[in-house]
Amino acid sequence: MEIVAAVFIENIELRPAPGPSTRIDLTGVHFSLAAPQPVPVAVEPHLVVLVRCGPDEKGTGALETVFRRGEEQIARNVQPLQVEPGKFAYRLVRAEMNFDDYGTVEATVRIDLGPTTTVPFTLLPPADPAG
Questions:
Q1: Residues with Cβ within 8 Å of residue 64, at least 6 apart in sequence
Q2: Mean pLDDT of each 10-residue bin along the chain, 131 residues long
Q3: Which residue of 27, 41, 42, 131 has the fewest CB atoms within a 10 Å radius of its CB?
Q4: Do the Cβ atoms of 14 and 104 come closer than 8 Å?
């Protein structure tokens, strides 16, 4: 199995299409977010991971996501992964991340200790409501 894509999102919707096929609509794809309030603050962004299983692969494994700020691990998520051979699947990963200052956290995602995909998430100061 391999990771096709991993991004932070606001929403995901699945819809049928002719074939039979499925469409995955991702909205609000982002790599940064204005803090809802000044730091310290906790945020819980949603990371969606799209996975492909080759037709000759077993279709089971473990999806591991580690969130790091520099060298410091701030959160970790491991979940079982089952994908029908020859098909695609997705998993949502959510971690509460505490920020004492604005900056970037990197999520590294991998399947069964394989290659990693890195996705940055940057917390920005709150937006000025006056625009």
A1: 76, 77, 78, 109, 110, 111, 113
A2: 97 91 94 97 97 96 97 95 95 94 98 97 89 58
A3: 131
A4: no
